[in-house]
Give the backbone structure.
Amino acid sequence: MLTYLKACDPEVRIRRLIELTIIEQLAKDLLAHYTVEVDGTSTKTVKEVLDEVFAVDAAEINLYEAGGMMVGWIQIVLGNDGHDCIADCQYKKRTPGAPDYTPLYEAMQAAEELASLLEEAHGL
């Protein structure tokens, strides 16, 4: 984690720490349920996810079930307030008429709750 903080300007380190905290939690939870790609690069560890996400300002995380079927994506955008780094997500329905609810949202729940707590704590 220190590597990502040392690489940025001192005035943005709090924001970067917030982003790191949220994305680290997200990566842990996603890797427990899915095969994860970040901008087309296969990732197997939290560190690999963080390396790919923090190499750019915006990243797309693609999620695959066992067997290789893509089931969704998450858009990450860095550099705003920090707590809002999870910018968008979508679950790809397997069949027409299937409900929108998915384990993807369960996998994202802890990171989303963490983002809300950090937003509140920093008065953003």
